[in-house]
Design goal:
single chain; alpha/beta; TIM Barrel; two-stranded parallel sheet; 9% strand
Length: 366
């Protein structure tokens, strides 16, 4: 592939991106959007195109400056700031060697312990250190508020509500507790939901936070992780509260959620009032079908399957992007669709394949 890849400059226009996400009007060009890029991918793109070679690496905000340059170069109007991580809940994790090859490997890969976890009993609940928004270091967000270039926006992920309810108990224990200790589950939901509502309100006070992006995996391949009734009663009301806060501040509320959510999609659209849905997998719901079902009610984000992007040839990737854009932008000229991966730009994804997706998107004319 030529080094001239992505040589055409795209001027960031976060206001037009917001119009696309809210389905207000057709854009002048196709817009890209990702939940986030793994750090290793950011570094690989930076190194390949020498985007931050003149920056001072000893500057405490060097990584933010680099991230701005990388995302602007790739054509994004907004990107994840990433100043708060799930480990604010001190989750027990397992780890093993990272199998991503070459320079993109992070050495070790972690995942959450699903069998057992921090909260087993009411005694654990009462002794647990519940995080507070006052404990969060806002320096990166405050720097971004002052220094984000004109036309660009950023976001932070919020509302990991079911995920934290799950992780703090372990999935196996959660399933038992739904029947054996429902009052404990409800108390955990209340603690986590209130934290993320407070956090959502906090970030909405910053102008640079262009969108509010809830991130909460609620399903797996064939169903939701728990009964739809439990989600409706104890999880979705907190997403509705986060969406309400976002809308009061004039910001769209997006939801990243993996898995088969057929049973609750109408709830997410009509009750929670999400503005856009992200995370699509070919073996669950291909993005073209998602757009056909829901594209007149909410925006659809991404959808180029991650497994496909990891394995396919450049020609097949470009063909898939063209087919997706024809299906998802043909009728409305890009209103309500942004190009991106089905999940995240993972460190094990070949850089060439990822760049081919973006390059083909740049060639598209609405």
């Amino acid at each position: 592939m030529s080094q001239n890849l992505l040589s055409t400059t795209i001027k960031p226009d976060v206001e037009e991106l917001l119009a696309v996400l809210c389905r207000d009007r057709a854009p002048k060009r196709l817009h890209f959007l990702e939940l986030f890029l793994d750090l290793e991918m950011i570094e690989a793109v930076d190194k390949r195109f020498r985007l931050s070679h003149d920056l001072n690496r000893s500057d405490p905000f060097y990584s933010l400056q680099r991230d701005i340059r990388v995302h602007a170069f790739l054509g994004y109007d907004a990107f994840r700031l990433g100043f708060v991580h799930k480990d604010i809940f001190h989750l027990p994790a397992l780890e093993s060697a990272d199998t991503a090859g070459g320079s993109q490997s992070r050495g070790r890969r972690e995942w959450i312990e699903e069998h057992d976890a921090a909260i087993r009993t009411w005694t654990d609940f009462e002794g647990y250190h519940w995080p507070k928004v006052e404990e969060i270091d806002l320096a990166p967000l405050e720097w971004m508020e002052r220094n984000l270039p004109e036309g660009m926006g950023c976001y932070e992920l919020t509302a990991h509500i079911f995920e934290m309810v799950n992780f703090l108990q372990g999935y196996e224990r959660l399933c038992y507790n739904l029947f054996d200790a429902p009052d404990l589950v409800a108390a955990i939901c209340e603690k986590i939901g209130r934290f993320y509502a407070d956090f959502t309100a906090l970030i909405c006070d910053f102008e640079c936070m262009s969108v509010v992006w809830g991130s909460d995996d609620l399903g797996f391949r064939s169903s939701t992780m728990t009964s739809p009734e439990f989600l409706r009663e104890q999880i979705l009301p907190w997403h509705r509260e986060c969406a309400r806060i976002a809308h009061e501040h004039g910001k769209p509320y997006l939801l990243h959620s993996c898995g088969n959510l057929d049973a609750i999609m109408d709830d997410l659209i009509d009750t929670v009032r999400i503005d856009g849905k992200h995370s699509f997998e070919d073996t669950i719901l291909p993005v073209n079908e998602a757009y056909r079902r829901y594209g007149q009610r909410i925006s659809i984000i991404g959808g180029i399957d991650v497994d496909f992007l990891c394995r396919a040839s450049e020609a097949d990737i470009r063909r898939r992007v063209r087919e997706t854009l024809e299906a998802c932008t043909g009728g409305d000229r890009g209103k309500g669709y942004c190009l991106g991966t089905g999940n995240t730009v993972a460190n094990y994804m070949p850089v060439e394949n990822y760049l081919s997706m973006l390059d083909e998107g740049r060639r598209h004319r609405l």
